[in-house]
Inverse folding.
């Protein structure tokens, strides 16, 4: 990709992200898109088997999507869910190889093709969980856990220093998979697995 094309894409991405943040600050959760450093950290902790899929929720402008594709996640087995119509259009333009779906992350059973139900190896969430009411958090988490295969994992990236998901309430183990200060603001990735 030409340097001028990359700069144009970056400016377009940042402008869209900022515009969506102004419109919905609690839904977007950050002023800038995730950095490549955070995106690569998420990709490093994403697992997928031969018959599995990966689901990315709250993809925004696709920084993590790009890192997942660059890491070798097969495009036909990467499902990118985004509730914001403008961001969804952007994702389809810049990442046509991924399975981009406009929809609610809490309705995963309705969004994910039936043949992949229960075969999700990794759910990746960029949704700002700490800003959501407990009942909304619970609906989202139950939806995601319902599609994880045995031994599957949930990755949540966040700007919080503590786990944004009440793991005990959902019978999950949690571990900080990593943190990057090369993101604005600095971000952590938490890894959750069913006990």
């Amino acid at each position: 990709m030409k340097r001028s094309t990359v700069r144009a894409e970056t400016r377009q991405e940042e402008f869209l992200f900022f515009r969506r943040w102004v419109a919905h600050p609690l839904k977007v959760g950050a002023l800038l898109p995730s950095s490549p450093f955070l995106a690569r950290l998420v990709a490093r902790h994403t697992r997928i088997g031969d018959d599995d899929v990966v689901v990315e929720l709250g993809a925004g402008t696709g920084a993590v999507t790009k890192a997942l594709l660059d890491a070798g996640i097969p495009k036909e087995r990467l499902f990118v869910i985004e509730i914001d119509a403008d961001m969804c259009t952007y994702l389809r333009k810049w990442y046509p190889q991924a399975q981009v779906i406009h929809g609610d992350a809490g309705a995963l059973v309705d969004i994910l093709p039936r043949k992949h139900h229960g075969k999700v190896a990794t759910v990746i969430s960029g949704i700002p969980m700490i800003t959501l009411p407990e009942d909304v958090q619970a609906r989202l988490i139950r939806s995601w856990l319902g599609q994880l295969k045995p031994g599957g994992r949930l990755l949540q990236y966040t700007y919080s220093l503590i786990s944004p998901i009440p793991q005990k309430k959902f019978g999950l183990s949690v571990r900080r998979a990593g943190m990057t200060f090369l993101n604005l603001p600095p971000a952590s990735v938490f890894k959750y697995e069913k006990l």
In short: The longest strand covers residues 148-158. DSSP finds seven helices and seven strands in the chain. The CA atoms of residues 36 and 151 lie 27 Å apart. The mean pLDDT is 88.
